[in-house]
C-alpha cells in the first residue's frame, strides 16, 4: 500500500521542473508562521513572495471565502456577480476613481495593461526598466528587463525599449512617437528592491503616453500606503495588482483611471476565471482590513526592521519602504536564505546579492526581533569571510 509520503514524493517527480524548490513541504500556516510535513515551524518573512499580506489563514478573508463557497463558486463573466462588483467599487474608492478588470495573476494583469494601452493609443511601443520583472507569459516577459529570463524565448513582442532606472534623460529619449505605454515598478522587486526617484516618476508622468504602475508587489499596503504611488506624488493612468490582493487566493487586477477609460469594449479582453466570486469576496475582506491602523503598523514595523537590518554584519545597504525591504550583502544572497531556512526563518532573494524581507503586514515586534536574530546568525559567517 502506498503511504501518503510516498505519494507526495511521486507527485514531486510528476511536476515540470520549472522551480528550484527547497526540499521543504509546507503543510500549514497561521499568522506569520508555517509548518512543514515534519512538524517544524518557520517564521515566514517572505509571506509567499509578498502574497500573504494579512498573515496565513487570517480570519477576515477566510470567513469571506468560506461564506462565498457556500453560495456560489463560479458563474462566468456572461453574468454579473456581487463579489466582483463590490471589489471593483472598493478598489475604485481607494484609487480615487477607476474601472477594474479582474484576472488570476500579476502576469495576466500586465497582459491586460499591454493590450489596453495599445487599443487606447494605437501605438505599439512600450518603455520599461532595465532590471524590472513583470511575469513569464510572452507579453509580460517581453517587458521584463532581465535578458537572462528573456533570451531562451526570443523573439518576443517587438517595440519594447528598456531604460536604466532613475535615468530621466534616457526615459525621455526612449519615448518616441510610436510609444503608447511607460511601465514602471515604484520599487523594483526582483531587480534588487530598488526604489525609483520622485524626479524620475514625475518625468514618467509628463511624457505623452499612458503610465502604468506595476504594483503587484508594492500595492495592497506593503509600502505603508494602500498604493505605493500615494506616497510618491504621481498618480498613474493604469495600475496592476495581484499578490496580496486576496491574501493567497489567485487573483489579479488592472485598474484604469476614470480619465483613461473607454478603450476596451465587449470582446476586447477576457478571462474565464477572472472575477471569481470566492477570490473577489476574500479580496474585499483584505481591502477592508488594510485600514489606517494596519498601515501605521507597516510603517512603524518597517522602520524598526530596516534599522535592525542595517546593523547586521555584512549588510552594506538597506533599500525599500514599509515592509518591502532589501539588504545588499557582499556575496551570495542565496547562501543567506538557505542558512536562515535551516534556522527556522523564511526570506527571499532579489538578485544575486540582495536578501529580501516581505513579512505579513500584521507582523509584530517580537517576531521582528526573532527574525533579525536569525538573520544575524546567518550573516555572521559571511561577514567573517569578508573582513578577515
Account of the protein in words:
This protein has 388 residues and is of the alpha/beta class. The chain has 13 helices and 17 strands. Helices cover 37% and strands 19% of the residues. The strands form four sheets. The protein has a seven-stranded mixed sheet, sandwiched between helices. The longest helix has 23 residues. The radius of gyration is 21 Å and the shape is globular. The mean pLDDT is 95.
Short description:
The chain is of the alpha/beta class and 388 residues long. It is built from 13 helices and 17 strands.
Give a quick set of tags describing it.
about 20% strand; Aspartate Aminotransferase, domain 2; about 400 residues; Aspartate Aminotransferase, domain 1; alpha/beta; 2 domains; globular
What gap, in angstroms, lies between the N and C termini?
A: 55 Å
Q: In CATH terms, what is the fold-level topology of the largest domain?
A: Aspartate Aminotransferase, domain 2
Q: Tally the structural domains.
A: 2
Annotated CATH homologous superfamily of the largest domain: Type I PLP-dependent aspartate aminotransferase-like (Major domain)
Major sheet strand order? 4-12-11-10-7-5-6
Could you give the order of the helices and strands? HEEEHHHEHEHHEHEEEHEEEHHEEHEEEH
CATH class value of the largest domain: Alpha Beta
In the CATH classification, which architecture of the largest domain applies? 3-Layer(aba) Sandwich
Amino acid at each position: 500500500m502506498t503511504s501518503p509520503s510516498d505519494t507526495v514524493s511521486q507527485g514531486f517527480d510528476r511536476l515540470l521542473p520549472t522551480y528550484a524548490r527547497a526540499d521543504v513541504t509546507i503543510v500549514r500556516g497561521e499568522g506569520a508562521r508555517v509548518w512543514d510535513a515534519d512538524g517544524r515551524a518557520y517564521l515566514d518573512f517572505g509571506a509567499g513572495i509578498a502574497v500573504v499580506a494579512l498573515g496565513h489563514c487570517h480570519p477576515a478573508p477566510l470567513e469571506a471565502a468560506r461564506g462565498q463557497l457556500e453560495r456560489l463558486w463560479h458563474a462566468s463573466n456572461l453574468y454579473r456577480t456581487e463579489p466582483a462588483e463590490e471589489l471593483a467599487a472598493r478598489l475604485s474608492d481607494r484609487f480615487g476613481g477607476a474601472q477594474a478588470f479582474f484576472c488570476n495573476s500579476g502576469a495576466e494583469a500586465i497582459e491586460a495593461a499591454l493590450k489596453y494601452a495599445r487599443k487606447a493609443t494605437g501605438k505599439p511601443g512600450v518603455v520599461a526598466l532595465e532590471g524590472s520583472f513583470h511575469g513569464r507569459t510572452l507579453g509580460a516577459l517581453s517587458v521584463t528587463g532581465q535578458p537572462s529570463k528573456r533570451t531562451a524565448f526570443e523573439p518576443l513582442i517587438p517595440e519594447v525599449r528598456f531604460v536604466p532606472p532613475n535615468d530621466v534623460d534616457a526615459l525621455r529619449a526612449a519615448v518616441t512617437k510610436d510609444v503608447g505605454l511607460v511601465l514602471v515598478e515604484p520599487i523594483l522587486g526582483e531587480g534588487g528592491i530598488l526604489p525609483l526617484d520622485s524626479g524620475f516618476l514625475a518625468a514618467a508622468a509628463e511624457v505623452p503616453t499612458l503610465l502604468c504602475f506595476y504594483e503587484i508587489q508594492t500595492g495592497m499596503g506593503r509600502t505603508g500606503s494602500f498604493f505605493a504611488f500615494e506616497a510618491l506624488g504621481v498618480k498613474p493612468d493604469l495600475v496592476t495588482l495581484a499578490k496580496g490582493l486576496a491574501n493567497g487566493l489567485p487573483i489579479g487586477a488592472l485598474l484604469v483611471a476614470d480619465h483613461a477609460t473607454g478603450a476596451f469594449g465587449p470582446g476586447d479582453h477576457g478571462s474565464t476565471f477572472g472575477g471569481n466570486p470566492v477570490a473577489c469576496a476574500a479580496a474585499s475582506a483584505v481591502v477592508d482590513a488594510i485600514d489606517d491602523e494596519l498601515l501605521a503598523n507597516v510603517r512603524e514595523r518597517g522602520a524598526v526592521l530596516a534599522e535592525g537590518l542595517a546593523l547586521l554584519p555584512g549588510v552594506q545597504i538597506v533599500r525599500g519602504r514599509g515592509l518591502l525591504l532589501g539588504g545588499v550583502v557582499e556575496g551570495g544572497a542565496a547562501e543567506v536564505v538557505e542558512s536562515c531556512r535551516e534556522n527556522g526563518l523564511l526570506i527571499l532573494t532579489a538578485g544575486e546579492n540582495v536578501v529580501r524581507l516581505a513579512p505579513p503586514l500584521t507582523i509584530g515586534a517580537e517576531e521582528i526581533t526573532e527574525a533579525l536574530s536569525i538573520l544575524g546568525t546567518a550573516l555572521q559567517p559571511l561577514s567573517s569571510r569578508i573582513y578577515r
